[in-house]
Amino acid sequence: MSRPAPSTSREITRAEWARLAADMEQPLTAEEVSHIRGLADRLDLREVREVYLPLSRLLSHYAASAKSLGAATSRFLHEADTTTPFVIGIAGSVAVGKSTIARLLRELVGRWPDTPRVQLVTTDGFLLPNAELLRRGLMRRKGFPESYDRRALVEFVRAVKSGADEVRAPVYSHRSYDIVPGEQVIVRRPDVLIVEGLNVLQPPPRPNDVSVSEFFDFSIYVDADSDDISRWYTERFLALRDAAFRDPASYFNTYADLTDAEASETAAGFWNGVNLPNLLENVLPTRHRADLVLQKAANHTVEGVLLRKL
Questions:
Q1: pLDDT digits (tens, 9 = 90+) for 194-230
Q2: Distances (CA, A) of 244 to 32, 177, 208, 225, 279
Q3: What SS3 state is found at 91?
């Protein structure tokens, strides 16, 4: 009987992972966690301590090691230290909680002494403007790989990894559901840059093209069962209906007065028509490319971790 092929990843249970935080001090308050938590996400101090605090320490170790190796390489070449920011990519489905995780890691990684300066950029800013999506007939495929300015995103991360003193990224508004003209995020050589988005682990579309993930030093995939994500998506849509959608300036204000049944049906239409196909066709197939996978349970808590071996 043949033996199974050895795994290239460590499979770590929630209990095993949580024990790594036994001697770590909780740096965040309940109020800070509340501000970080996304609408309809489940996140409390226990989850922060047991899951994301040890993850932030691991990431800080990785970043510090990369910086040390960069400095050693510069000394070997007899040149000035040209170490560039450590770039982390975070991928996963709509409504899986990756934006909350990205914001949380920005706060936690920045609390460690080796990585005090952390910046976050989301790939939403690299979506094509609505006018261009309409021109190309892509409004119903917003979030699919072809709806992004892939070249601009690649050049942005390339510039960060080249050590540019200042790199600018566009800004996206969830209120207007569009790029904000003239507004930019400025990245100035942080210790760590977090890039969060649906498709950040996508391979290049053509053999000679460059993918943004080629410039990542570490990548994370936030994983969950698609049925659970569908439910979370509906819960978030209902929460938005009672909050952001009531803003008259919101792109989605037309949904503010839907009944629970109507809102759930509308959310199911968006999920089944847009987000689930994108997940199955484009996002989920990139999971194996991640250095670390966070496996979420039905209640939004992380139940296990897969960590690629070095």
A1: 999 999 999 998 888 999 999 999 999 999 999 999 9
A2: 21, 12, 42, 27, 25
A3: strand
Q: Which of 3.40.50.300, 3.40.30.10, 3.30.70.20, 3.40.50.1260 is the CATH number of 9-308?
A: 3.40.50.300
Separation of alpha carbons 161 and 155, rounded Å? 10
Going by C-alpha positions, the residue among 15, 47, 37, 26 that lies closest to residue 305 is: 15
Separation between Cα atoms, residue 44 and residue 31, nearest integer Å: 10
Strand runs labelled E in 148-273: 167-173, 178-187, 192-196, 218-223
Q: What tokens does 32 get?
A: 């800070």
**Residue 100 and residue 174: Cα distance in Å, rounded?**
15
Report how far apart the first and last C-alpha atoms of the chain are (Å, whole number).
29
What number of other Cβ atoms are within 10 A of residue 114's Cβ?
A: 18
CA-wise closest residue to 115 among 25, 191, 55, 26: 191
pTM beyond 0.85: the answer is: yes
Q: Which of 118-132, 177-191, 243-257 bottoms out in mean pLDDT, i.e. has the lowest?
A: 243-257
22-67 confidence digits (pLDDT tens): 999 989 999 999 999 987 788 999 999 999 999 999 999 999 999 9
Q: What is the pLDDT of residues 270-292, one digit of tens each?
A: 999 999 999 999 999 999 999 99
What is the residue extent of each domain of the chain?
A: 9-308
